[in-house]
Amino acid sequence: MKNRIIIFVITLFTGVSYACSQVDLSKYVDPYIGVDGGGNVFPGPCVPFGMVKLGPDCGNKDWNAGWDPTGNIHGFSHVHVSGTGGGCKYGNILMLPITGAIQLNDYSSPRSEEAIALSSYSVKLDRYNTQARLTALSKSGFHEYTFPESNDSKIIIDLGSFLQSHEKQMLVGSEVRILSDTEVEGYSRIRGGWNEGGPYTVYFYARFDTPAKETGTWKSNRLYPGKLSQTDTNEKTGAYFTYQTVKGQKVCAQVGISFMGTNKAKANLEEMKSWNFEEVRNTAVNQWNEILSKVQLTGSEENKKIFYTAMYHSFLQPVNRTGENPKWASDEPYYDDYFAIWDTFRATHPLFTLLVPSIQTDMIRSLIDIYKHDGYMPDARSGNDNGRVQGGSDCDILIADAMVKGLKGIDYETALQSMIKNAEIAPGGDERKEGRGGIDDYNTLGYVSTRHERAGSRTFEYANCDFAIATVAKRLGKQEIAEKYYQRSNNWQNIWNDGIESLGHKGFLWPKNADGSWCPEDKFSVFTSGTWPDFLYETFSWEMSFYVPHDVNKLIEKCGGKKQFINRLDTYFTHERWDQRWFMGLFQISNEPGFLVPTFYNYAGRPDKTAEVVRKTLRTRYNTTREGIPGNDDSGSMSSWYIFHALGFYPNAGQDVYLISSPLFQAATLSLENGKELKITAKNASDKNIYVQSVRLNGKELDKCWFRHTDIANGGSLEFIMGSKPSKWGKSGELPPSLSTN
Amino acid sequence: MKNRIIIFVITLFTGVSYACSQVDLSKYVDPYIGVDGGGNVFPGPCVPFGMVKLGPDCGNKDWNAGWDPTGNIHGFSHVHVSGTGGGCKYGNILMLPITGAIQLNDYSSPRSEEAIALSSYSVKLDRYNTQARLTALSKSGFHEYTFPESNDSKIIIDLGSFLQSHEKQMLVGSEVRILSDTEVEGYSRIRGGWNEGGPYTVYFYARFDTPAKETGTWKSNRLYPGKLSQTDTNEKTGAYFTYQTVKGQKVCAQVGISFMGTNKAKANLEEMKSWNFEEVRNTAVNQWNEILSKVQLTGSEENKKIFYTAMYHSFLQPVNRTGENPKWASDEPYYDDYFAIWDTFRATHPLFTLLVPSIQTDMIRSLIDIYKHDGYMPDARSGNDNGRVQGGSDCDILIADAMVKGLKGIDYETALQSMIKNAEIAPGGDERKEGRGGIDDYNTLGYVSTRHERAGSRTFEYANCDFAIATVAKRLGKQEIAEKYYQRSNNWQNIWNDGIESLGHKGFLWPKNADGSWCPEDKFSVFTSGTWPDFLYETFSWEMSFYVPHDVNKLIEKCGGKKQFINRLDTYFTHERWDQRWFMGLFQISNEPGFLVPTFYNYAGRPDKTAEVVRKTLRTRYNTTREGIPGNDDSGSMSSWYIFHALGFYPNAGQDVYLISSPLFQAATLSLENGKELKITAKNASDKNIYVQSVRLNGKELDKCWFRHTDIANGGSLEFIMGSKPSKWGKSGELPPSLSTN
Q: How far apart are CA A74 and CA A596, in angstroms?
């Protein structure tokens, strides 16, 4: 009786605490936003940076997040990634409630009544007349299955199932063991997938609230009724639990997941303290509210829905796997599923730095620890293995960004070593895995020549990464190193071809051969898009020619001066051309290399044009539908881009610079980790009033169209006055810094 | 009753079969030979190429095979390597019979009554008054423990124990689970060690023949009596089983080992069909007899003891891990613990090709499968990870050797691809891991310059490896590739410095800078030995200057012609110089780069001098003591060198050439896999009669001092007449082939 009172008091206290510090913003999160139209976001239950992402694997199991809009459901698996492109990864430890005999060759079922909400997924499986409700915590999943009346109701656990597509995953092996009529454990070992990584093993331990009347296992395509375990012979295995059920009978399962072992998987169930679905779900929702409540908004419900869902999407990855690293023992944090830093260094990680700097610090520390044990920091990483590198060694920019924004607790000396290793030591055999490919050229010729793949992307990105190295070296007092890399950060100019003309603009990034000759114009065009083996990766010269984030002033000069540069930006943002199937603008927010370009107007003193492009993009490319994200969310990249611009500014990653665009909300209060608040107000802000008329930063008039992280890191205020017409604001103030002018 | 009869009949049949096909040669194997004096061979129970090598880990746990001569015994662990140098590897899943409380900080015990025989190890543990007897099969170990009278007898299983030294292993994690009063399972995950490899996991399942009265576990340094399992938190764990024993009571354990999972470890116990120590041991001994009986000898008992023990040592590694590959699923064989091919390509693998070509074929197939999945063939590999490369990419030579000796069932096209990858694609970040380091120099300058480590070893070895590539390309009809690599195989000449003089001989391998200038003589000496970061790896210029196996004729020319070359060999084999601590000959059979040099006299028409050097080496550097192997056995390399020369010939690996030296035994019959026999007789052979007077090969007079594999691959006869004085034989016949003269 005494105990009950104590529990009651604690519950009361928790409730009070919740009411004080958190508002239920979770209602604004709609996991359906962006599931379709290539957004590829993961719609199933999970918590911020959670290791378990529990959701359905559908159709041909070739959708990157497992879910697809119409395909049959094969089951619910526990590990997924969100918003990725290319080949699939994960889709491990799959469970399904069925009735009748198991058709091992295809047990999938059509679905109906699918309903997705934050940390809750439910669906009816028509083939079996069963229902499933799912929720999840950090390292465990909760399944609530509802059966019809049947003496052959079953829960199956398939350890040979995983997502598949091109750049495919392959089964290495699996093991399963039924421990009792309510317990089963085992593992699934897979290699490959998008990052072409080595083998990873997902262990599980599942317990059920109802004893099974019979159990069995399978191996390859053969069922073994009554057999309690299957041994790893590089084949698929699975297990099933059979129940006699009355109509509507529920059987629940709690499933612990681990990358270490089955004992650890079981221990990871400690966080799952209840057999009540709603209680478990509430625990997850509370974790989301803690993140979401870092930003309090005043504005339209529609925009809030887009915004908070974007926050939700931004905080899905990388995944916190501290304590779950099977490759080395370390006291450092461990994060996996950097998928990919090429995408997320631009907006997502800067968002973490602003809202959750302690987590961003942990991520940086994990990157350095990966360098120390695996040899290189990753540009992408998944399944405990580095890969792949799309362009530059973009983790360099994360380090520089952390340093200029004052993140503490990071070993910057070792970080610099790892950056220099990227720059100087070729990764060898597989140049898509890590480090920098083609540096035999870059470090001798000053550019990557056409004899290497992705030569254009690499040269331009390496230049910006070199600037990041210089940034860190300079702050560490290593002047000689800083000088060397500042110098190298000009290398983009070595493949700038002044002779190329397009749509009235001269000078473009252009393929150059190792002998110094240019690729002829009949072999390459400024509109040629490419991928892995090509000159440019997921971009084209018209767009990638803007990619000089560290020296926009020099870029302006190369483009013929400010006026011509503004014209060039205008063309980029307005020109439409026939692209095989439709007219398409040159600017596509769906592609990261263009992320920063809208704010380049600021560098030419025209923040009003930045506002126009940004607000048009927010308005036309983001919405609350299933296709509400402009393209592949790329691990929250599209979402983070939205968040920054909706708040009214955008980071130039690796530099202590935010460029002002156009705030969407009338007010936004950011609760910073240090307990301070950043209060953003935008008087008169509306769909029409998109132009900044004036800004006050921390109470002082701000006549320039940018500010520094240090200006807001300790809280403060950012007061915009908005209007329907361009104003003089920001046009004559100090311009943002650039390498060649600072 | 019926069953008993059947078993009796089977036993009888097995017995008869054994008597017909096998002689008990196991009595000639003394596992103590070479355990000390740096031989580092593994003395414990195991079977040919067996995955489990069960033996004691002693002293500071810094002896490469676990055993040391005097240190305390920590316990008996299941995975070891034999005859390795550098840092330790393995020493996993350690068990010990004790009495009383467990001192987790040091439970080791002094020993007495240690006795080692083939597949049997026994010892008394003085601290506890317990005894242990061990034997092992391919994937499982058998422990027979004898306890004193005690109500606190214990068997402990430590999953945090492993061998340690420089190039050290590190614990990644471990898990343990007691399943019943007679069963326990778990794993130990380790990374590092000599090859600086990634993490490997050793799983185990142990069952005892006696129920424990109590059990418990530990984690880190804390005991948990009664707790049945420990979870992986990157710390060491262990378990113990307690018994009440009467004096002399035996408790036996059968332990299955796996690199896949605990179920697989349990399944691997299937081979262990008896709880009777002798029965299990006999199974192991029979497997050894099957190997040993491939050579039937007539000669002294002493020499037979050395010979058969050398065979035993040669057949310990690489380890057959087919079905135990946790990195990919494949139908190809899987071998691990190539430790290292730099050692074993010279004599050990050629021995396999002669005696067990089907196994050598499987090994080559495993190398190609490793290339297909890990990116490079290994030069060394352990714990499922490539590393390290000491000089060349010597697996190239294995491929060429297999091809010229006609091994079937190998995908030579893919093999050639992998060889070309070695030659052309730099391994990157860690150039000690795989492939060829320094090829930015080698493939442009024609040599590895002094700006790279091991530049001398690499240049000379790459040249021979290039010859191997040309050999394979030519046989595949790829003339252009063959020509290119034949050309490159001359590259050793690019760092041959005619101006260097030593002990009256001119022209030596010499460090050359990238600008083409030579290293000055006051900075380098022909006597300078080196290791990883140096110009030469485990050799010195006087010795390594001979390393031109593919073009000995050109080497003779560079040395000033035959006469001068013979003089130079004489100097190499007779000169002694003060080497810090003692006078030392230039020639040291303890070091592989000198392995082939004795037979170089054959290339100059002086096989009598080959005989002298070889027989002196066999006589003075090999014996039946614990220091009976001239140096580190290097995974059977020293042993295989002995075997070939004791038979009277030695391979020039990668070429279809055996060079005749001087047979030790009066007769030797080799039972080949194809059912044919090679009968070697050596009339008058004795310690004095070391000179070949004449040879008949397959009944025909052989006037040259070499022959081809094809001459003996289908059996035949090799009839030597020996005498006490050099004869004219072999001096005027056709000389062995060389690149520049064939």
A: 41
Over 50: is that where the pLDDT of A183 sits?
yes
Going by DSSP bridges, is the β-strand pair B229-230/B691-697 parallel, antiparallel, or unpaired?
unpaired
Nearest CA in chain B to A421: B429
Q: What is the identity of the amino acid at B501?
A: E
Chain B residues lying within 8 Å of A430, measured CB to CB: 375
Residues of A whose CB is below 8 A from B330:
234
Maximum CA extent, chain A: 87
CATH of A29-288, one of 2.70.98.10, 1.20.120.530, 3.30.70.1060, 3.10.20.310: 2.70.98.10
A188 near A94, Cβ under 8 Å?
Answer: no
Interface predicted TM-score (ipTM): 0.92
Q: How far apart are CA A550 and CA A558, in angstroms?
A: 14
β partners of residue B216: B225, B240
- Residue-wise pLDDT for A558-605, tens only, equals 999 999 999 999 999 999 887 777 778 899 999 999 999 999 999 999
CB contact under 8 A, A263 and B231: yes
Contacts of residue B421 in chain A, CB cutoff 8 Å?
A: 429
Preceding peptide of A388 cis, ω within 30°: yes
Q: In the structure, what pLDDT confidence band is assigned to residue A8 with cuts at 50, 70 and 90?
A: very low
Looking up tokens 């359906």 gives A32
**Cβ of A427 and B429 within 8 Å?**
yes
- Predicted model pTM: 0.94
Q: For residue B451, with 0-12 CB atoms within 10 Å meaning exposed, 13-18 middle and 19 or more buried, which class applies?
A: exposed
DSSP B616-651: HHHHHH--SSTT-SSS--TTTHHHHHHHHHHHTEEE
Do A137 and A73 meet the contact criterion of CB atoms below 8 Å apart?
A: no
Chain B contact present for A675, CB below 8 A: no
- Asked if A514 has any chain B CB less than 8 Å from its own CB, the reply is no
Helix, strand, or coil (residue B528): coil
pLDDT tens digit sequence for B9-58 = 334 344 333 334 457 899 999 999 999 999 999 999 999 999 999 999 99
B2-288: what CATH class?
Answer: mainly beta
Which fold, A295-741? GH92 mannosidase fold (3.30.2080)
Angstrom distances, CA of residue B201 to CA of A327, B260, B327: 10, 8, 11
Q: Could you tell me which of B292, B171, B346 has the C-alpha nearest to residue B671?
A: B292
Closest residue, chain A, to B176 (C-alpha): A263
Nearest CA in chain A to B232: A264
* Residues of A (4-33) whose Cβ lies below 8 Å from B: none
As a whole number of angstroms, the distance between CA B420 and CA B422 comes to 5
Chain A residues 211-230 within an 8 A CB cutoff of chain B: 229-230
Residues 147-176 on B with a CB inside 8 Å of A are: 170-173, 175
Cβ pairs bridging A and B (under 8 Å): 123
Handedness of CA A304, A306, A312, A314 (dihedral sign): negative
Whether chain A has a CB inside 8 Å of the CB on B267: the answer is yes
Which residues have a Cβ under 8 Å from the Cβ of B501 and sit 6 or more positions away?
A: none
The continuous run of DSSP H or E covering A379 comes out as none
Q: Which residues partner with A134 through β-bridges?
A: A121, A143
Q: Compute the Cα dihedral for A368, A374, A375, A381 and give only its sign.
A: negative
| Cβ-defined contact of B187 to A261 (cutoff 8 Å) | yes
Task: Enumerate the domain spans of chain A.
Answer: 29-288, 295-741
Tell me the angle at which helices B455-475 and B479-488 cross, rounded to the nearest 10 degrees.
160
Residues A509-518 have pLDDT tens digits of: 999 999 999 9
The residue type found at B401 is D
B331–chain A Cβ distance below 8 A for any pair: no
What's the pLDDT tens digit per position in A9-26? 344 443 333 334 457 899
The C-alpha of A180 sits at a distance from chain B's nearest C-alpha, in angstroms, of 12
